């Protein structure tokens, strides 16, 4: 009998706990809605939901964000996660961020939603995201900000977490530098501010919150061949 190859550590961690991961969104609706609000603030308001097929989430997980944000396509290498995303109507491709199986200029929006920290080769992943995003489109990164107080605490304890033990958390400054190296300049930033005793709220910037979002535009000029 053929035995399939073992999945890499980060993929296995999510695949083994797909149901637990998905349940988190039901158990923390206020946080989830705030995170959706931070991302939505950086999406093109003129683009209708019908254009969802030209939006891609890399590391779509169980499809929670994609389904809520009108993202119709996803890449997800963890089979159980992908199955849940498909149940939410997302067209999911089994692939990794560093080798996207799509033609150049395929999407108007390409998003990493708390997934770039699990990618083996982030520069290559961002280069691929830029390649498949059409000129004038957006590459969006939602991430957990290492420079925030909550991010520093997570980093100190992440070896105990079944998911984030495999993550490489970064600061906003580090992510802006990664974008710049991929010829992508951030032109928008949002964050979720969570204060004790207060509901989470969305604020501009990416200097205080744990959950932050950066948007970069792909240059409208002709792209060099890759």
What does this entry look like structurally?
There is one protein chain. The protein is an alpha/beta fold. It has helices at 9-16, 18-27, 29-40, 64-69, 79-87, 122-132, 149-157, 172-181, and strands spanning 55-58, 73-75, 91-93, 107-113, 133-144, 185-193, 201-204, 211-217. The protein has an 8-stranded mixed sheet with strand order 3-2-1-4-5-8-6-7. A hairpin with a 7-residue loop joins strand 6 (185-193) and strand 7 (201-204). The termini are far apart. Mean pLDDT is 90; it is low at 1-7.
In short:
With 226 residues, this protein is of the alpha/beta class. The protein contains eight helices and eight strands.
Low-confidence stretches: 1-7
Bulk shape: globular
Overall pLDDT:
90
User: Beta-strand percentage?
Assistant: 15-25%
**Tell me about the biggest sheet?**
8 strands, mixed
Structural topology:
Elements (H helix, E strand, L loop, with lengths): L8 H8 L1 H10 L1 H12 L14 E4 L5 H6 L3 E3 L3 H9 L3 E3 L13 E7 L8 H11 E12 L4 H9 L14 H10 L3 E9 L7 E4 L6 E7 L9
Parallel strand pairs: 1-2, 1-4, 2-3, 4-5
Antiparallel strand pairs: 5-8, 6-7, 6-8
Search tags:
disordered N terminus; alpha/beta; 226 residues
